[in-house]
Amino acid sequence: MSARGEDSPAGGPRLVTEERGPFAVIRLVRPAERNPLSTATLDELDSAFITLSARTDLRAVIFTGSGDAFASGADIRELEALSAEAARGFSERGQRLFGRVAGSRLLTVAAVNGFCMGGGLDLALSCDLRVASASAVFGHPGARLGVITGWGGTQRLPAVVGATRALEMFLTARRVSATEALGMGLVSRVCDPVVECALGMALNATE
Question: What single-letter DSSP state applies at residue 73?
Answer without folding.
Answer: B
